[in-house]
Hints:
By secondary structure, the chain is mostly helical.
Amino acid sequence: xxxxxxHHHADVSGGWLRAATFGAMDGLVTNIAxxxxxxxxxADRPTLVLTGVAGLVAGAISMAIGEYTxxxxxxxxxxxxxxxxxxxxxxxxxxxxxxxxAIWVARGLPEPLAREVADVLKQHPDQALxxxxxxxxxxxxxxxxxxxxxxxxxxxxxxxxxxxxxLTYLLGFDSLWLALAVGGIGLFAAGAVxxxxxxxxxxxxxxxxxxxxxxxxxxxxxxxxxIGV
Length: 229
């Protein structure tokens, strides 16, 4: 008997992975830039720590609220479209079946086979709705991302990312460049991890994030130097 090969795909639905990735990157870049700007202005260690902690807390809360609202709004929009599709399936099942046939034929499926499958789906409204959602909306109704998961992932990962540039100050060191170097290491590591998820070369992902973070830090450092304390 032929065995069915089991394999698993990564989370591509926009749930925890997207929120965690953006949260960690945003936390790193935000606090690296904040510390660079305030440090460039000549602030002392207590001021830098206060600035970094305030940026961590405010940013984590903001990211969590933003992710929750974004995902919740997206899910509500999908729910409204699904309700509309369900009404159409009940009102005009033949027309909806014709839509599926046209989509499948355009993708190369023989029309008799496409028509046969569409006719079978007409007898199963729940499955028909699921197929229409995938084909017309590009979503799987029972696999929508959770707004709470997105918010929690974003909050935690932003806080972790924002904490990294503060570590040297919290450990008693008083060097801006050491803090920025540790933040740069964090950026490179985070980019490398994301690269592993996307099958992109890890070093390329790490280097890209390092360069982007460095540009942000350079911009704020320059502003800090110009304005001063």
